[in-house]
Amino acid sequence: MSHSIPQSLASRRILLIVGGGVAAYKALDLVRRLKERGASVHAVLTPAGAKFVTPLSLAALCGEPVRQDLFSLDDDARMGHIELSRDADLIVIAPATADLLAKAANGFAGDLASTLLLATDTRALAAPAMNLRMWLHPATQRNIARLKADGMAFVGPNEGEMACGEYGPGRMAEPLDIVAAVEKALQSPTAIPLPAGVLATSGALAGKRVVITSGPTHEPIDPVRYIANRSSGKQGHAIAQAAAWAGADVTLISGPVSIPDPVGVDMRHVETAAEMLAAVEAAMPTDIFIAAAAVADWRAAAPAAGKLKKVASGPPALMLVENPDILAAIGGRKQQRPALVVGFAAETDDILNHAREKLSKKGCDLIVANDVSPENAVLGGDLNTVHLVDAKGVDSWPRMRKEEVAARLIAALAERIGGSGS
Ligand code: C5P
């Protein structure tokens, strides 16, 4: 039967969570489609899902026992529940009900399905299916946005006639569309599990101190206007989070950003480059200094005390003066220089040469260079393509989530600092 079908999912392991909804019957077809492409499928059936399809039919199609209960004693002890999701290449939630998504978005773990989603770093793909008002409800949309930010992939829902007689978005994607989304999720580099490196680096920086700058700086022109740039702080904050997860004592000095503070770090919020420099100096000494902030190169020479007014004589001349270079100040220290000083080089052209130049000019041990040309959507985006440049050479990493860059960078720094014996 499957001879003519390309084995696009050969030896891929899928964990399928079947939630409660009329669309659950389509999950049976989905299992067939996944398996005929070479995947192995383990299934978890929620209590609500079991009202729509039987465990027996699901098990028969999967060729594997179906898990239903978090506290079951019957399941094979070697294949514990948690291993089910950790061993999978991808978790597919189909149908993904509003309830399952709400639990996943908020980290609930009161039943088998939500526990499996929480206890793993395996990525998940959700095929939502629900009444259109439930889909359009701000609570559901909020949960979806949060799950997307956490790295969950989505397929559908489609628009159409609903089981309840209404018309609109909420119908589960068709099995073949879900299969295509599974193939895509497994191919894309962003399918690398989000905190993959985190577990690997756990404790790797225990006992080390890390100071990080992040975000833009705002340089006042007058009390209501300022000079700024497009830095979101996402990369610097992710590095701070990864360092904290690696057990370091972390101080994060951030310019104005709209993202939340990382968990477990000592935060310093600043506005200007001068304030950032003062906060960095106050946070010394440190083992590692990472300058990820996009510090404004210039500030207004004399910010006006009152709001500048439009006048008939034309616009005011804006006199600029250079800001202190925080990275160069720390990298060039004669005393109490951190063992590792890491800078960033955000460029739009000739990236590697600029990075090498910065390495020596700013006294860094390592430069993380990235191409911030608008077509790469790095500034403000979730993905980054970086090159690690040091005196020995260049290590280019594939495009990946900023969290993944952070985890890998922390692993690389832990290796260096461990080796230096400092
Ligand atoms: O020279 P450029 O601004 O491209 O250098 C970027 C690197 O230098 C980044 O690591 C940035 O955080 C740091 N920097 C700094 N203080 C400045 C300017 C840049 O720490 N005033």
Short description:
The protein is α/β, with parallel strands linked by helices and 422 residues long.
Characterize the structure shown:
The protein has 422 residues and is of the alpha/beta class. It folds into two domains: 13-191, Rossmann fold (3-Layer(aba) Sandwich), CATH 3.40.50.1950; 196-420, CoaB-like (Rossmann fold). Helix content is 33%, strand content 22%. The chain has 14 helices and 22 strands. It has helices at 24-36, 55-62, 81-86, 98-106, 112-118, 132-136, 138-149, 175-187, 196-201, 234-245, 273-283, 326-331, 351-361, 402-420, and strands at 13-18, 40-45, 66-67, 90-96, 124-128, 153-154, 158-161, 167-171, 209-214, 219-220, 226-227, 249-254, 266-269, 288-291, 298-300, 320-322, 340-347, 366-371, 383-384, 386-390, 393-396, 400-401. The strands form six sheets. The chain has an eight-stranded mixed sheet, sandwiched between helices. It has a six-stranded parallel sheet with strand order 3-2-1-4-5-6, with helices on both faces. A two-stranded antiparallel sheet has the order 7-8. Helix 1 runs parallel beside helix 2, helix 4 (98-106) packs across helix 7 (138-149) and helix 10 (234-245) packs across helix 14. The longest helix is centred in the C-terminal third of the chain and has 19 residues, at 402-420. It is elongated and about 75 Å long. Mean pLDDT is 89; it is low at 189-196. Cytidine-5'-monophosphate is lined by residues 213, 273, 291-293, 295, 323, 325-327, 343-345, 358.
